[in-house]
TrEMBL record:
PANTHER family: COPPER HOMEOSTASIS PROTEIN CUTC (PTHR12598), COPPER HOMEOSTASIS PROTEIN CUTC HOMOLOG (PTHR12598:SF0). SUPFAM superfamilies: CutC-like. GO terms for molecular function: copper ion binding. This is Copper homeostasis protein cutC homolog. Coiled coil: none annotated. It holds the Pfam family CutC. InterPro entries: CutC-like, CutC-like_dom_sf. Belongs to the CutC family. Gene3D superfamilies: Copper homeostasis (CutC) domain (3.20.20.380).
């Protein structure tokens, strides 16, 4: 008998307490904590932010981005030392794991750098973030990451601008991941992210769930008008069009995806009724 699928985990990336609370109220299972999410794709959050989230939300599983700056993913020795120190500090907190990624100038995974970071992060979970989508070849990058060891998931848009637009590559990655699972004790998971919303989640689940999809990643965020009434003209801090705006996760956007995921999962569960327990008589049995 084919087993019923497990529930899909929804991870939401946030960079403020307000966004975190919106994500949880909307139904998020896990949070990725970052700074500069809307403007720079996410950098290392402050320790104060992490502790505030834990004080307010309790035991919600938390992954923490460790990325010392915006820009590319080629790091100097000094930057690597900063990342290692951040990992040491965050390991003292009660968190689920660390989110990292490093590349070479040729567009491959920086295996040596990643080994240093992963060794420091273990036994916490380690997620290789969307630096994966900046590699020259997704299959090559997947094998490089699997061979490093200690990495439990890859966050990826499938080398596309959004995950729903790159389903063929995501299918390839999930299929390849199944092939390497026999030699991978870390249970490496492919987690689609970028552009996931209530309008496309059904298609994403329909295509990828049969290939072993276990979790999805989203932000549910948008730029909101800030509350500053006085605004100096021709002045700024380098944030461009978002200078006076605030990036905020929208509770309703997360809730809509949660509802769609749970509804889809429940429909599948209904296709796989539980097997009779041992000794239970089947209908019409004469025994």
């Amino acid at each position: 008998m084919t087993e019923a699928p497990l529930p899909i985990i929804i991870e939401v990336c946030v960079d403020s307490v307000e966004s975190a609370m919106n994500a949880i109220r909307g139904g998020a299972d896990r949070l990725e904590l970052c700074a500069n999410l809307g403007a720079g794709g996410g950098t290392t959050p402050s320790l104060g932010f992490v502790k505030s989230i834990q004080d307010i939300l309790g035991e919600i599983p938390i992954m923490i981005m460790v990325r010392p700056r915006m820009g590319d993913f080629i790091y100097t020795e000094d930057e690597i030392k900063v990342m290692l120190e951040d990992i040491r500090i965050f390991k003292k907190c009660d968190i689920r794991g660390i989110v990292i990624g490093a590349l070479t100038s040729e567009g491959r995974v920086d295996v040596e750098c990643m080994k240093r970071l992963v060794d420091e992060a273990l036994p916490l979970e380690v997620c290789f973030h969307r630096a994966f989508d900046m590699t020259r070849d997704p299959e090559e990058a997947l094998y490089d990451i699997a061979n490093i060891g200690g990495i439990s998931r890859i966050l990826t848009s499938g080398h596309g601008k959004t995950a729903p637009s790159a389903l063929e590559t995501l299918k390839l990655l999930l299929a390849t991941r199944q092939e390497i699972m026999e030699n991978d004790p870390w249970g490496l998971s492919i987690m689609p992210g970028s552009g996931v919303n209530a309008q496309n989640i059904h298609t994403l689940l329909e295509v990828l769930l049969p290939l072993g999809l276990k979790e999805i990643h989203m932000s549910g965020g948008t730029w909101m008008e800030g509350s500053m009434a006085f605004r100096r003209q021709d002045m700024g801090m380098g944030c461009g069009e978002s200078e006076w705006s605030i990036w905020r996760t929208q509770e309703e956007k997360v809730r809509q995806v949660r509802f769609a995921v749970d509804s889809y999962w429940q429909d599948l569960i209904n296709l796989y009724p539980p097997a009779p327990s041992f000794g239970e008589e089947s209908e019409g049995s004469n025994v």
